[in-house]
Amino acid sequence: MSNRQNKADVILIGAGIMSATLGSLLKELTPDWEITVFERLASAGEESSNEWNNAGTGHAALCELNYTNEKADGSIDISKAIKINEQFQESMQFWSYLVKNKRIRNPQNFIMPLPHMSFVRGSQNVSFLMKRFETMFTNPLFQGMEFSDDPEKLKEWIPLIMQKRATNEPIAATKIDSGTDVNFGALTRMLFDHLESKNVNIHYKHRVVDIHRTSDGLWEVKVQNVDSGTVERHTAKFVFIGSGGGSLYLLQKSGIPEGKYIGGFPVSGIFMVCNNPDIVAAHHAKVYGKAKVGAPPMSVPHLDTRFIDNKKMLLFGPFAGFSPKFLKTGSMFDLVTSVKSDNLITMLSAGAKNIPLTKYLIKQVRLSKEQRMEELHEFIPNAKSEDWDLVVAGQRVQVIKDTEEGRGMLQFGTEVISAADGSIAALLGASPGASTAVSVMLELIKKCFPQHIHEWEPKIKEMIPSYSLSLMENQELLHEIQTSIVQTLDLAGKDQSNLKGNMNTFQKA
Ligand SMILES: Cc1cc2nc3c(=O)[nH]c(=O)nc-3n(C[C@H](O)[C@H](O)[C@H](O)COP(=O)(O)OP(=O)(O)OC[C@H]3O[C@@H](n4cnc5c(N)ncnc54)[C@H](O)[C@@H]3O)c2cc1C
């Protein structure tokens, strides 16, 4: 690959966690390749990857009830949970490699140990949670998970949630201490700082407005300087469209057949953030509840301890809602302009199928703060409105496509869409999201660089020892990896809060 001006080996569009991860993997695999990044905003990790725009859960399926469904025969299907857990283990291994090799430093600035819990009310939900626990706790990936329906035990685990709670309904929780809170914004910025130090050309305030194939088989991107309005053209052999909610627009611009008949459905998010330090100190976990009937999986409410700017915080949400924007900083016309002749029927079919969901989201957007407090009361019965503020989170654009089940089906996962020759790829969708960035980008590398994968495999295995293996079936390797990760990422759990003491302070206040 050559070095002509404006000609890179790889162009990454967007400076979120996905481009940061792909850029970092490629820099390790092939350090000489020239990589150029274009980002429309002033710095890295400002959209969905920003710490205030996502929930910061290191999704390992330890507490998210929507990853474990009850089958018709009453048994619990944990296959999705196993997949997500193994994907997260790949992310942890890569981050650990980066820290060990001094590519990034101070892991406590982006990852903290934090118990992950599921909390349910009502006898039906309690029996579901118990069955789920019984299916999971013997699995090596979920070792250490505990279950309790004893109010006294729950008071120890989650005093804030148990305070002033009526005792006449069945309640239960599971707890596992190997969970994490991940500041994906901080991690994204660290990775871009590292890439910059390795001579990656990063152009902030540069918006990609068009992409097309040149006659010599390269990809040319048309880039506009956001401040001056001037336009430049850059070419590369490989382009990654890692533009989050902006990816669909650029995929459509590329004109590749694989990008046709696909649409996007934006779902917005709102968190409530606690402004009372005594309440913040009285809770230490991510506690996931069960989605309400009719609610989409990404609106499962959770009460989360978060670590942002080295400060402990408490956030509740996200409340899902509807906004036609595809990026938080996007345009009100994003949804309308994403409808093209090829995806019109797909989009109309999705619209017809998802009227109840759209109605639900519009209703959610209109909720007053007091109505949102009612949802919070299910977690903290005596929460007071003055202790909580609303903050707008990021946008998630769910993929809409035609599948065997029908036209215009709404998808809740992430999808890599790539050209048949692997010269361009886009990442669509947002769940489980940032947590699985490493495994999703490894999948992309396998798809788009088949000619190099054999040569790169030893290095991939050095960075991610479980690559292409099942950790569940290799318990020795799992143990080895986990021991090393805990040490390198400093996850031994020294931030064990004195919850009982803190709760006393809160009650006196
Ligand atoms: C409310 C909410 C909660 C979430 N919670 C979690 C969670 O708990 N755990 C988890 O793992 N994941 C979570 N996610 C998902 C996660 O945040 C995303 O999957 C992830 O951040 C996506 O990263 P990205 O790099 O693809 O996109 P982004 O971070 O959005 O980055 C895309 C970048 O591309 C830029 N861009 C767009 N268009 C252009 C253009 N034309 N030219 C140049 N630049 C462009 C944007 O400005 C942006 O900086 C959550 C998401 C939301 C919205």
Automatic annotation (TrEMBL):
Name listed for the protein in its UniProt record: Probable malate:quinone oxidoreductase
Entry GO MF terms: L-malate dehydrogenase (quinone) activity
Stored InterPro entries: FAD/NAD-bd_sf, MQO
Species whose genome carries this gene: Halalkalibacter kiskunsagensis
Catalytic activity: (S)-malate + a quinone = a quinol + oxaloacetate
Lineage summary: Bacteria, Bacillati, Bacillota, Bacilli, Bacillales
Alphabetical keyword list: FAD, Flavoprotein, Oxidoreductase, Tricarboxylic acid cycle
Residues forming coiled coils: none
NCBIfam families from the UniProt entry: mal_quin_oxido, PRK05257.1-1, PRK05257.1-3, PRK05257.1-4, PRK05257.2-1, PRK05257.2-4, PRK05257.3-2, PRK13339.1
Reported cofactor(s): FAD
Pathway as given in its UniProt record: Carbohydrate metabolism; tricarboxylic acid cycle; oxaloacetate from (S)-malate (quinone route): step 1/1
Top-rank lineage group of the source organism: Bacteria
Record family assignment: Belongs to the MQO family.
Entry EC number(s): 1.1.5.4
